[in-house]
Model the fold of this input.
Amino acid sequence: MENKFTLLYVDDEVLNLTLFEHNFKKDYTILTAESGDEGLKILKDNSKISAVISDMKMPGMNGVEFIRTAKNMFPEISYFILTGFDITEEIADALNDKVIEKYFRKPFSKVEIKSALKEVLEKE
Done:
C-alpha cells in the first residue's frame, strides 16, 4: 500500500478516540489527542499530518477555537468538526469562513468521513 495519510483526531472522551482509531487505522495513520492544547502540541511535533478532525464540545477550548488556532499555525492542513449536536452558528461561521471543510455528526459514518477525506487529501 502507498504511504498512508496521517490524521489527528481530537476528542476529550477516550472511548471516542478508541472507536475512531479502530475504525480508520487500516486506511490512515491515526494520532489522537484528548484536548485542543494536546492537539496543538502534536501538530507542532508532527509535520506529516494531512487532516484534523476535532470534537466540538471539549473543556478548555472547543473544536472551532482549536481549529482556528491550528489553522493559523498550519494552514495547509484540512480541518473537520465531529459533533453529537446540530450545527451551531459557530460551526456555520467556520464553514462559511473556510476554516473547516465539513462537519460530521456523531455517531459518525465511516463512509461519509472516508469520502470527505478522500476528496480533500487527493488534491494534495
Observations:
- The chain has one domain: 6-121.
- The radius of gyration is 13 Å.
- The chain has five helices and five strands.
- The chain has a mean pLDDT of 95.
